[in-house]
Amino acid sequence: MSQHLTGTAPRLSYQRFGQQGPPVLFIMGFGMPGAVWGPQVDELQGDHRCCHYDNLGVGQSDRGSFFRTIPAMAEDAVRVLDDLSWDQAHIVGVSMGGMIAQELGLGFADRCRSLTLIATHGGGSFRSLPTSRGLRLFFQGLFGGSEHRMRSLPRLLYPDEFLESIGPEAIRAHLDVRLGHPPALRTILGQLYAVWRHSTESRLSQIALPTLLVRPGKDILIRPSQTDRLASRIANSQVLRFDDAGHGVTFQKAAELNAALRGHFAQHGFDRPASTPTIGARV
Questions:
Q1: Are 140 and 148 in contact (CB under 8 A)?
Q2: b/e string for 85-108 if b means 16 or more Cβ within 10 A?
Q3: Number of domains composing the chain
Q4: Half-sphere exposure (Cβ direction) of 188: Cα atoms closer than 13 Å
Q5: Domain of residue 62, CATH code
Q6: How far is CA 23 from CA 104, 143, 171, in A?
Q7: CA distances from 260 to 112, 174, 224, 245 (A)
Q8: What pLDDT digit, counting tens, does each position of 179-203 carry?
Q9: Quick one: how far is CA 18 from the chain centroid?
Q10: Which of 61, 98, 130, 256 has the fewest CB atoms below 10 angstroms from its CB?
Q11: 212 within some domain
C-alpha cells in the first residue's frame, strides 16, 4: 500500500495497492473514507492494481468547495486516474459512489473498462428517498453525536439478523476502524446537496459499458427497487442479488461480492475486445 495526494488543489488523498494486473478504481459513498473498501482491496490486490480515495472533505483529502455536484465528483475521480497514469480502469462505486460512477460512464466512458454500481440509484424522483426507518436512522446518525452514530449506523447498514450473527463487539470494531472519524458538518451538507440534485435516470440508456448492478434486498437507505430501475435503463447490465443483505453489502457479503467482481473484471478485461451491449442480460 502507498498513499498519495493528487498534485492539483484541492488535493485528493488516495491509496494504491497491488503491483500488477488490471486497474480498479473504488469510489466510496456518502461521508465515508475510501478505507471502507478494505474487504475488497484486501482480496483483489494480489492480482489487480487497486485504488481507493477519500472524497473532498473526507479523510485526508482537502475540503474543497461547500456545494458539490455529482458531475464535479466524477471529475475528481478522473483526476485520480490521471495521477495514477491509468488510461482506463474498472470502476466500482457504492451508494453515492455509484452515482459518481454513473457520471463517469456517461461523461468519461473512454476512461472506464466496466462499471459496478452497488446499492445506488439514478435519482430524479422522490422514489429515490430511503424508507421511513432508513430516513430516521440516517438523520439520527448525522446529527445525534458520536454515540448515536455508533448506535444508528449499524441498524442503517445491516439487517438485524446479520447484526445478531456477528455480535456487537465485532460490528463496533469494524465501524470504529472504518468510520470513527466522521467528516465535518460542512462536508455532510455539501454531499447531501449533491445527492439531492443527482439525476441520471433520463440519460442511463446512453451507458453502453458492461455494468454489474448489485442489489441488496434488505437495503433501507436506497430501496432495492432502485436497482431494478437502473437495470431497466442500462441495456448492457447484469444484476447480482443479495436478498438478505443491507446497504453495507460490501462488508456483509464481501466474499461473494469479491468473487463476482473478479469474474466481472475477467469477462470484460483489457485483453478482450470492448464489449457490445447485450440487451436484457441478467443474473
A1: yes
A2: ebebbbbbbbbbbbbbbbbbbbeb
A3: 1
A4: 10
A5: 3.40.50.1820
A6: 16, 37, 30
A7: 18, 23, 19, 15
A8: 667 889 899 999 999 999 999 999 9
A9: 20
A10: 256
A11: yes
